[in-house]
Specification:
147 residues, alpha+beta, six-stranded antiparallel sheet, two-stranded antiparallel ribbon, 1 helix, elongated
Length: 147
Protein backbone atom coordinates (compact mmCIF):
# COMPACT_ATOMS: atom_id res chain seq x y z
CA UNK A 1 0.00 0.00 0.00
CA UNK A 2 1.24 3.52 -0.69
CA UNK A 3 -0.05 4.72 2.74
CA UNK A 4 0.26 3.62 6.34
CA UNK A 5 -3.00 2.21 7.57
CA UNK A 6 -5.11 -0.88 7.11
CA UNK A 7 -7.50 -2.57 4.72
CA UNK A 8 -11.13 -1.97 5.69
CA UNK A 9 -12.87 -4.04 3.03
CA UNK A 10 -14.73 -6.88 4.79
CA UNK A 11 -14.63 -10.53 3.69
CA UNK A 12 -11.48 -10.36 1.55
CA UNK A 13 -11.16 -14.13 1.87
CA UNK A 14 -14.26 -14.47 -0.35
CA UNK A 15 -12.28 -12.97 -3.23
CA UNK A 16 -9.79 -15.84 -3.28
CA UNK A 17 -9.98 -17.59 -6.65
CA UNK A 18 -12.10 -14.87 -8.29
CA UNK A 19 -11.13 -12.55 -11.12
CA UNK A 20 -11.50 -8.79 -11.16
CA UNK A 21 -12.84 -6.90 -14.13
CA UNK A 22 -10.72 -4.06 -15.41
CA UNK A 23 -11.09 -1.06 -13.08
CA UNK A 24 -12.90 -3.03 -10.36
CA UNK A 25 -11.85 -2.31 -6.77
CA UNK A 26 -10.18 -5.14 -4.90
CA UNK A 27 -9.97 -3.54 -1.46
CA UNK A 28 -10.17 -0.16 0.25
CA UNK A 29 -7.29 1.07 2.41
CA UNK A 30 -7.73 3.61 5.18
CA UNK A 31 -5.09 5.84 6.74
CA UNK A 32 -6.51 5.98 10.25
CA UNK A 33 -3.94 8.27 11.90
CA UNK A 34 -6.15 11.25 11.01
CA UNK A 35 -9.84 10.87 10.29
CA UNK A 36 -11.66 13.30 8.04
CA UNK A 37 -15.24 13.84 9.08
CA UNK A 38 -18.18 15.66 7.57
CA UNK A 39 -20.38 18.00 9.59
CA UNK A 40 -23.62 19.56 8.43
CA UNK A 41 -24.06 23.16 9.58
CA UNK A 42 -27.22 25.18 9.02
CA UNK A 43 -26.47 27.67 6.27
CA UNK A 44 -27.14 30.77 8.38
CA UNK A 45 -24.37 29.73 10.82
CA UNK A 46 -21.55 29.53 8.27
CA UNK A 47 -20.38 33.10 8.85
CA UNK A 48 -19.62 32.33 12.48
CA UNK A 49 -16.51 30.16 11.99
CA UNK A 50 -13.40 30.02 9.82
CA UNK A 51 -10.96 27.56 8.27
CA UNK A 52 -8.54 25.94 10.74
CA UNK A 53 -10.98 26.72 13.55
CA UNK A 54 -11.17 24.34 16.50
CA UNK A 55 -13.82 21.60 16.48
CA UNK A 56 -14.90 19.58 19.52
CA UNK A 57 -16.61 16.28 18.75
CA UNK A 58 -18.54 13.87 20.96
CA UNK A 59 -19.20 10.52 19.37
CA UNK A 60 -22.21 8.45 20.36
CA UNK A 61 -19.88 5.52 21.08
CA UNK A 62 -17.53 7.58 23.31
CA UNK A 63 -19.70 10.25 24.98
CA UNK A 64 -17.28 10.85 27.87
CA UNK A 65 -14.22 11.40 25.69
CA UNK A 66 -14.50 14.53 23.52
CA UNK A 67 -12.18 14.74 20.53
CA UNK A 68 -10.58 17.92 19.22
CA UNK A 69 -9.89 18.64 15.57
CA UNK A 70 -9.87 21.50 13.09
CA UNK A 71 -11.90 22.73 10.11
CA UNK A 72 -10.25 21.70 6.83
CA UNK A 73 -12.76 23.01 4.29
CA UNK A 74 -16.17 24.57 3.96
CA UNK A 75 -18.34 23.51 1.02
CA UNK A 76 -19.11 26.28 -1.43
CA UNK A 77 -22.81 25.52 -1.89
CA UNK A 78 -25.75 24.76 0.37
CA UNK A 79 -27.66 21.51 -0.05
CA UNK A 80 -31.00 20.29 1.22
CA UNK A 81 -30.77 18.48 4.53
CA UNK A 82 -33.66 16.21 3.63
CA UNK A 83 -35.92 15.51 0.69
CA UNK A 84 -38.87 17.29 2.31
CA UNK A 85 -40.57 20.22 0.63
CA UNK A 86 -38.48 23.36 1.17
CA UNK A 87 -40.73 25.88 -0.59
CA UNK A 88 -42.36 27.25 2.58
CA UNK A 89 -39.12 27.94 4.44
CA UNK A 90 -36.11 27.24 2.24
CA UNK A 91 -33.47 28.56 4.67
CA UNK A 92 -34.41 26.20 7.50
CA UNK A 93 -33.73 23.04 5.48
CA UNK A 94 -30.39 24.02 3.90
CA UNK A 95 -26.99 22.95 5.22
CA UNK A 96 -23.35 23.52 4.37
CA UNK A 97 -21.04 20.51 4.61
CA UNK A 98 -17.86 21.18 6.58
CA UNK A 99 -14.89 18.80 6.42
CA UNK A 100 -12.90 18.43 9.65
CA UNK A 101 -9.66 16.65 10.50
CA UNK A 102 -9.46 14.72 13.78
CA UNK A 103 -6.24 13.12 15.05
CA UNK A 104 -6.73 9.44 15.84
CA UNK A 105 -3.60 8.30 17.72
CA UNK A 106 -5.34 5.52 19.69
CA UNK A 107 -7.31 4.33 16.62
CA UNK A 108 -10.67 4.51 18.38
CA UNK A 109 -12.31 6.36 15.50
CA UNK A 110 -13.78 4.16 12.78
CA UNK A 111 -15.31 5.02 9.43
CA UNK A 112 -19.04 5.73 9.66
CA UNK A 113 -19.20 6.72 13.36
CA UNK A 114 -21.69 9.44 14.29
CA UNK A 115 -22.04 12.06 16.98
CA UNK A 116 -22.29 15.79 17.59
CA UNK A 117 -19.81 18.61 17.10
CA UNK A 118 -19.22 22.20 18.14
CA UNK A 119 -17.17 24.52 15.98
CA UNK A 120 -15.37 27.35 17.72
CA UNK A 121 -16.79 30.63 16.50
CA UNK A 122 -17.11 34.29 17.28
CA UNK A 123 -17.57 35.39 20.85
CA UNK A 124 -20.83 37.29 21.25
CA UNK A 125 -22.49 39.04 24.17
CA UNK A 126 -25.11 36.79 25.78
CA UNK A 127 -28.05 39.00 24.76
CA UNK A 128 -26.90 38.97 21.11
CA UNK A 129 -26.46 35.18 21.07
CA UNK A 130 -29.97 34.54 22.43
CA UNK A 131 -31.77 37.13 20.28
CA UNK A 132 -30.13 36.16 16.96
CA UNK A 133 -33.04 33.97 15.76
CA UNK A 134 -35.51 36.81 16.38
CA UNK A 135 -33.31 39.38 14.66
CA UNK A 136 -32.73 37.00 11.72
CA UNK A 137 -36.49 36.44 11.42
CA UNK A 138 -37.11 40.18 11.23
CA UNK A 139 -34.21 40.83 8.84
CA UNK A 140 -35.14 38.06 6.40
CA UNK A 141 -38.73 36.89 6.83
CA UNK A 142 -40.43 40.17 7.68
CA UNK A 143 -38.38 41.94 5.00
CA UNK A 144 -39.69 39.45 2.41
CA UNK A 145 -43.30 40.38 3.27
CA UNK A 146 -42.74 44.08 2.55
CA UNK A 147 -43.64 45.43 -0.90
Amino acid sequence: MPIDGRLITPYLERKIGTYLKQGETFAVAEDDRHISGELQILEYSTGDFVLNGKVEIKLLSYPNKPLVGKVLSIQLNAVSESTSNTENNPASERVINVIVDVPNPDEKLKAGMTGYAKIEGKTLPLIVAFTRPIVRFIQVEVWSWLP
